[in-house]
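Bumping with the actual sequence this time:
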Amino acid sequence: MGRSEKPIASTGKARHALALWLRAQRESVGLTYERLAARTIFSPDTLRRAASGQQIPKLSVLKAFAEACGADPQAAEGLWRAARRELGGSHVEIHVAYTTDFSGLHGAMVSLYRQAGSPSYRELNRQAGGNGRLPKSTLSRFFSKKATPARAFTLAFAEACGVRGERLEHWDMAWQRAAGKYDWEKREKARQRERAKRIRRKRERIKFSAFARCAGCHRHELVTVEEPSEVFWCDHCVSAKIPRPLRPPR
């Protein structure tokens, strides 16, 4: 059986239970960590750290450990989720059925995320089917409350956290309730103001027409300039000319 294991590190109850469960599964099949590692893609040290209780192992490591021991990966995942929730500390759980606005929906989504074990952003995107359904940048803006979740994002997020079937409809309905109270008219006016600002900035860069008088032949020509003091050359006498604008630039 190899060298004896160190005592489980002093941790929370859920993490301690996870470490005990992993050790019990290994002992039930009578395998050393070296022989156990031969059944997985992970090293013996990685598997030994997973059962040490010092840290919560990655879900992929945990499932490989369980499968190598012939144990139920779903049972291992349940213990893992409990340990992750314990690691997140106290948090007020918000049920999706009681949300009426985007603030409540955000709280319900965070609660769901913690129940799912607080997986990494990469893991969330993978569980949502990949293809950029949950980009890291969008997830970051969501958790920092810098963006209102879109309908597609909300459903993809729920799927990534394990919501399936009819339960997914509850999240769709919650988003629709929140969207019904959202001031879309105010948001549209803000968009129009921003668009007007962009147009004004663009117009400031647009060239304007002006009459230019040649310093040599004194001919007047209509030219297009970017700056009132811009110097041109006359086409008739090849002398310098400074255009005088018809109106100041807007």
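The tokens above came from a reply further down the thread. The two ends are 84 Å apart (CA to CA).
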